[in-house]
Write the structure tokens for this entry.
Amino acid sequence: MPQNQEFFNRRLHSLLGVIPVGVFLIQHFIINHFAVYGASSFNAAAHFMESLPFRYALEIFVIFLPLLYHAIYGLYIAFLGKSNTRRYGFFRNIMFMLQRVTGVFLVIFIAWHVWETRVAAAFGADVNYDMMADILSSPFMLVFYIAGVLAATFHFANGLWSFAVSWGLTVTPRSQKIMTYVSITVFLVLSYIGIRAIIAFLDPALANM
Amino acid sequence: MSEQKTVRFIVTRQDSPDASPYTEEFEIPHRENMNVISALMEIRRNPVTVDGKDSAPVVWDMNCLEEVCGACSMVINGKPRQSCTALVDQLDQPIRLEPMKTFPVVRDLVVDRSRMFDSLKKVKAWIPIDGTYDLGPGPRMAENKRQWAYELSKCMTCGVCLEACPNVNSKSDFIGPAAVSQVRLFNAHPTGEMNREERLNALMGDGGLSNCGNSQNCVQACPKGIPLTTSIAALNRDMTMQSFKNFFGSDKL
């Protein structure tokens, strides 16, 4: 697309954030949630995902390439803006600032998270309940992971709101307001699922189930 | 009255476009119903700072003095607005006057808003009616639509929305909300509609509307209460449809 390159890049960035990255986020959280039913339940779910056909193609085209594009172009967007929340403390302006702060934090968090799990798996580590329980036994890592989960759910929920505006779905102030409530609900529900899974990795009783 | 009431001003000054800014404090006698412009005129008559230092008169821009031209916009106590309608009695003192730094500063409080006028040219924010012969009357506009469009036509290119926007700055060439809303205005006009896709394609170009980050400061800051974020979302929808038409093709030009 030589014409309107920037328009294309921006819209692609907006689209990829929801499909597939956002969809993958939900799927990832649901698989994680199996930890609530015990280690064997989580391991079975993780094993099922690992043994999907065309695993590498799925990983590359559904996860890594869209995620990389969204992350790198997102960093470019974030540093193009000049936050002014001190002068204009409006709700949407604070959301604008938080969207960029969580985005930059997520690049760091996800890079580390992928290194610790998927790259480790490529070098022969077994991705299972014990691996996560081991990682989360460190208090620093626990806080880092909780922050990562909350940043991801916020970034996705608020991103859904701006997706609706950027594509022209919600035009009137009323529809945008109702979309705000929808995005808050998405944030709360996904945060509950994500945090509950993290807590499940801390429970020694679940480790033997 | 034995003692004269006074008003204090802290003015950000800059001697030339490349000079570094500094502040000067002035104290002037208070008058009933004074606005920031009449205060600046008072400073101009006797440009002596509170320290007794002789200074040059403060330079600012103004024209209509009734908030319809947009020329006298400046940042007053941290908020960009028109200095003609900024009444001194309604402001906390000392009153801080700064130029709108989103734009290149010419001198003191005068900024160069050329980028806004260039943007209007870029999106063709007008209705072409010239021909080599009389084209006759254009299609009529419904009265309810005219009333609706009147709200959008209140834009005076004052620059307050650009000053409030976190995505309009020296690092980005984002067109800003004002011109976007003008595209909506002229696309809604029965004759202007004939050049609809030209304006949409201009808005889809580099530095176009897709740079909007939805902070929605513009609609809060607009002195004319123009529904700028509604215009932005409406044009996002139009651009979405236009991009499909451009790529997949359509006979509906």
About this structure: The mean pLDDT of chain A is 95. Chain A touches chain B through 35 residues (CB under 8 Å). The longest helix of chain A spans residues 91-122. The CA atoms of residues 116 and 197 of chain A lie 18 Å apart.
